[in-house]
Predict the structure.
Amino acid sequence: MPQSINRYLAAAVVCLVLVCVGLIIALAIVSNKDNDSNEVEELEPCTETNLYIEEVEPDNPGVFHDLTTKEINGLKDYLYNNDELDLVRPSESKKEANYVFVAELHIPNKSDVLAFLDQRAMQPPREAKVIIIRGKPPNTEINEIIVGPLPNPSSHRPLPGINASLPYFYRPMTEEDYGSVTDFVTNQIQSNLGDLFDRCYGTNLGNCGDKCLSFLYASSFSPASSGVNERKTWYWLTWDAEYYTLHPVDFSVLVHIKEDGLEINRVWFSGAQYSMEELKTEFQNGGITCTAENFPEVNKNLFSAPHRRGKIPETGKNKRGPKFVLPDGLRYKVTGKHVEYMNWAFDFRLSTSYGPQLYDIRFNNDRIVYELGLQEVSVFYSGHSPQQRFSDYMDSAELIGPSAQGLIPGVDCPDHATYYDTMHITETSETADKTANVFCMFELNTGEPLRRHHSYYDSEGKVYEGVENVILVLRTIITVVNYDYIFDFRFFQNGVMEVKGLSTGYILANAFSDKELKYGFKLHDKIVANFHTHMFNFKVDLDIKGQKNRYEIINVDVETEINEFSVKENSTYSQGYITRHVQQTENDAAYKFNFESPKYHLFYNNQVNDSFGNPLAYRLINNGMVKQIIPRGHNKEPAINWARYQHAVTKQKDTEAHSSSMYSMFDTDNQVVDFQGFIDDNESIVDEDLVLWVTLGVHHIPRKEDLPLTTTPGMGLSFYLQPFNYFSEDPAMASQDAVRITPKGAGVNVERYGMPTGSSKTCVPQKNNFEKMIAQEPDIVFEN
């Protein structure tokens, strides 16, 4: 084609583009003139919000507020000046001594709290729950006591529902314990088997520079598995490289932790078990052969180290992801730890022992839930090697609360979230340990409508109505060694609550052998990752229109009847129908899921009905059910007997405050907290104050895509509390997030109910100053 024609075509294209641009600008001007009064025309920045909350401790804390600094100081004065308790201070050695393991808020009896909240009675005295480990001979034991009244305590008493004296070997491990056991094992193994390590691993356990083997992981060997009421633990050997649970070697030791010292009972090496002397002698006599292993080559491409690597997709290259903005500022209010959002209100705290807890959850000022809280996080593994076989964990033994650390804006939570701190008192706390940014709170547009309908045709009425599904999220993340658990409490504008758990972090790998392939897949050159089950248990103390509730199951059954409308002789028709059954006792209400029998689970006050005779109810929807596969009574199964049921319903008792305890790792024969006992007394649950116990879980068979870190899609577990005939209509009809579109002449009318559209508003997201904060306070992210 001649160049002159090319030039003419180019000129024509330019002219056409200019004409189009001119038309677009003209149309935009006309459109702006036609916009309704709600349109925001001016350019303005986003509303500034203080995302990092500097909380002011109240002089008179509420009934659910965590211990204040003043109360903690008064508590410590009482404890350490009490000759009867005879306690050493946190900075002193805990060996053969009495010491405070943990102290936190004690929630008063429910009846006293409700009298205060609902009947203007006096606020119950503020008190603390204190766990004391009495290691001073001759009377070694564990005591749980209540100390009060705060801030100036004058007395203490045993914790109701817990034995006054618990066996000493149930005690949780302190930091001093971990250090002394690790040092003992390291020294014993190095002095006896140092030559074996030099030959088989090319390194040892001391003077190894940056290429070391270390005992960094442990699996408790409970009396249920060992057969003796003694404290024993398998300590694993791993390469000390990022991340060590993906670099195991086939070596572990069984340590007997006695009151008068430590002892190595067995050694597992290269697929066989020995005594220390047997392995040492056999190696010296040439009976042990091994193929030398090398320390992993540490660089950014190391499979276990999550450095960014791989080809960047072209569509996203050097482009940031979307950011959320708050065009008009926060739509929720937090006073202390009391939250108000739309029609919701609740209090929250982080229990040192049990993790996130919510209280007095109300919608339209009606209490729906008195108490909602995590009770236990459990992981049960399978395997051939003893260290993996007996890796059954109840994470409350590690204290769930302090396992929640600082959250990272933009990843853990959106940039626009607000953050809240907490304090813990543990065996290391000379003063209360403050953890910054342990909770985040934010509004989230889920990206899907809360409701919508589009009638397109004249015959349907020509109308569109929809509501943005914007919810409030309270989040904390618990990191227990290698696994991270994300817990969300989600509040919808239509009166629905969701509790969600997600797992991520590092899998627990095992040194590869053919025998381990029965339990998992080989994922890398030297490791196999074994099948395991994650389980979470929650307490939900429901108060639907008061404290006299019923639990009703609606069965979805099938009937097959004669079809009299068919021309075919003897024709039948099958369809579903419902039957309603009020559960009478706690045994009736211990629920195990059956796909062959669909059910609805409702909770309500039978004395409060609507004009049609329907009870005003809330429904449980469990989207995270799992089958706990260990047979009843086997291994550590009694320690998680709450997992026998997808949910259970019991009569509320202050002495049945929790479904688990931090002693469950070693407490098997006679549970300190025996959840099954809550059910076995089989009390009536008709028109009683009811507590719902919900179990969520997932079976995890690791895959290569779990390297280096397990990702969250597909790992989410949740349950919902959904209103069921509780309201006369969708309560989110009041939401200003709604949009209605109807015909208007030749055009349309867009109704936003007084809310600006913001179509011509430029709003810059708030600046995230987190990196500057952690430069000044690095202990927000890492231990100082």
